[in-house]
Amino acid sequence: MIKTIMDTTEIQAINPFSRLESLKVIDGILWILVPIFGLVLGITIGVLVIVWLEREISAGIQQRIGPEYAGPLGILQALADGVKLLFKENLLPSRGDARLFSIGPSIAVISILLSYSVIPFGYHFVLSDLTIGVFLWIAISSVAPVGLLMSGYGSNNKYSFLGGLRATAQSISYEIPLTLCVLSISLLSNSPSTVDIVEAQSKYGFWGWNLWRQPIGFIIFLSSSLAECERLPFDLPEAEEELVAGYQTEYSGIKFGLFYVASYLNLLVSSLFVTVLYLGGWNLSIAYEFIPKFFDINKAGKVFGTIIGILITLAKTYLFLFIPIATRWTLPRLRMDQLLSLGWKFLLPISLGNLLLTTSFQLLSL
């Protein structure tokens, strides 16, 4: 009887410790999941804002009204379109490869979503501050064309397959100049980390932006990122007049919606990297003696400063987004031979020359 009482007492003493350990495990899992879900929620809202902005700006350029019925000022129109695609029927090609057909859109979206993990939205506000941040983005973004090619091949449609091949050729052609521009920035900042690149620009304020130190690289990066996002004048993989709808021809419902989301996710991540690499990131970039002390966003542990940094990053990003949106209604579409000639015969040699010039200046400054 005494032994039984002792055993019961020991079990009761052990139980609180086991509960405490389980609570610590749950707390650790929550601290991992909350930033990820918060980032995904923020990205989703950002994409909805981009869709609304593009429709409003496009309507203004073409002197149309634009969305105005779904919600105030039509801000819920993109959400209504997403709900509509969610409830539409998913059709599968009768003779296509169902696995490739289904996996393709997922690869395109997931590869772009992973790129957001290395983007610093503010001081110490980055999901993963890696020492090879910009090159991880390039490596991950190189996987997206594989999903497009799988989609085109799995559709068992010649037009879709041709669209997938065009998307792959276009991506390969413009990834090389883009990578050389990123390499020039990392050499200039002495680090491929996205956080270190922003910090290197903050030393000289507005005039320390890489936009002024790498103007040729900025133009090449802008052109290459438009081609990577398949935006006009580089939207050949989904040119309606030539290829019906490219690799998206056989898609419907939520799978088509994934391609639609992927294009805007890619546009947003490209604009964020332009902000980080060339526009000073989260830094206010004006003389600090004219700003109250509580606007100092470079002090760690300040919630208000972090929020200000995030707002500055997003403001620069969305101001830059006006360029690709306006370009869509300004420039005509290139032919396939013109697109490849621009990438291989012009942008590649110029970006290589820019890299060699940057390397020479860095060596002379040592």
Automatic annotation (TrEMBL):
It catalyses: a plastoquinone + NADPH + (n+1) H(+)(in) = a plastoquinol + NADP(+) + n H(+)(out); a plastoquinone + NADH + (n+1) H(+)(in) = a plastoquinol + NAD(+) + n H(+)(out). It is a multi-pass membrane protein. Its EC number is 7.1.1.-. It comes from the Eukaryota. HAMAP family: NDH1_NuoH. Signal peptide: none annotated. NDH shuttles electrons from NAD(P)H:plastoquinone, via FMN and iron-sulfur (Fe-S) centers, to quinones in the photosynthetic chain and possibly in a chloroplast respiratory chain. The immediate electron acceptor for the enzyme in this species is believed to be plastoquinone. Couples the redox reaction to proton translocation, and thus conserves the redox energy in a proton gradient. It is found in: Cell membrane; Membrane; Plastid, Chloroplast thylakoid membrane. GO terms for biological process: aerobic respiration; photosynthesis, light reaction. It comes from Paederia scandens. It is an enzyme of class 7 (translocase). GO terms for cellular component: chloroplast thylakoid membrane; plasma membrane. NDH is composed of at least 16 different subunits, 5 of which are encoded in the nucleus. The chain crosses the membrane at residues 29-53, 100-119, 125-150, 258-280, 300-325, 346-364. Belongs to the complex I subunit 1 family. One of its GO terms (molecular function) is NADH dehydrogenase activity. This is NAD(P)H-quinone oxidoreductase subunit 1, chloroplastic.
